[in-house]
Amino acid sequence: ASNSPQTIGVSLDVIAFADFDSDNDVDQEDFGRFQACLSGSGVNYAEGCMAADFNGDWLVDGQDLAEFIRCMKGPGTSPGC
Questions:
Q1: Judging by beta carbons within 10 Å of its beta carbon (0-12, 13-18, 19+), is residue 27 exposed, middle or buried?
Q2: Cα 3 from Cα 27, distance rounded (Å)
Q3: Which end of the chain is more exposed for a tag (fewer CB within 10 A), N or C?
């Protein structure tokens, strides 16, 4: 066994909820993508809808829409937006 230290690199994907275009704000461009994910039934996470499911219940529904609208209220939105 060697006593030399090893460095392990880990890459994590961070989901910025509702910011589908990754421009650091939640705006009208993101709303179009959110609407495409809004269904009330199972979400296809392969299509990138995970960022639309704020409460993690595997649905994109009215509860998530209310949270999305709260996040759209301007710059400096709360964490989680």
A1: middle
A2: 52
A3: N
Helix (H, G, I), strand (E, B) or coil at 40: coil
CA gap 23, 11 in Å, rounded: 21
* CB 67 within 8 Å of CB 55: yes
Residues counted in the chain: 81
Structure tokens at 22: 């990754």
The phi, psi pair for 62, rounded to 5°, reads: -60, -35
How far is CA 44 from its chain centroid? 13
- Mention every residue, 6+ apart, whose C-beta is less than 8 A from residue 75: 25
